[in-house]
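Readers outside the structure-tokenisation community will struggle with the description of the input data as it stands. Showing the layout once, in full, would remove most of the difficulty. For illustration, here is how one protein appears when written out as sequence plus structure tokens:
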Amino acid sequence: MALRHFEFKWLGLEFFVLTPEHIKLLQRLTVYWRVNHDGYGAPTIDVIRPYGNSDIHGDIAELLGLPQPDWQAGATYSSDQIVLMDAFHRETEFALQVVLQTGLFQPGLYVRRWYTNWILVVAGVPESITSRRELCQKLLE
């Protein structure tokens, strides 16, 4: 499986590959205003229905173009599909940080140092990166 989030903690560097799939998920997020006990509020993503329905895997599969199982025949998502969908769902944290901090909905390789703002370093989605070594090689190209 391709890696999309890397950390080099000893250098304070963090990398994230924003893909068109992340952007599709972000564009479908359900956002509302949540007020706390003091009367102040903030935009909040619906944790029960982040993509509009409570069937999170179903929504993600639809957005990513994954085949739906034949539910009537008792089929379910494969374990590989679930791992993929869960990874993209979890990565929306980084994807949202990237688009809000850069103002870009542009696929590419982003970097930040010591938890500062993300910046775009390579436009477009790099070929599948499966190790930190491949990431370093990509950055040196």
The chain has one domain: 5-140. Helices lie at 20-27, 56-64, 79-102, 132-140. The longest helix spans residues 79-102.
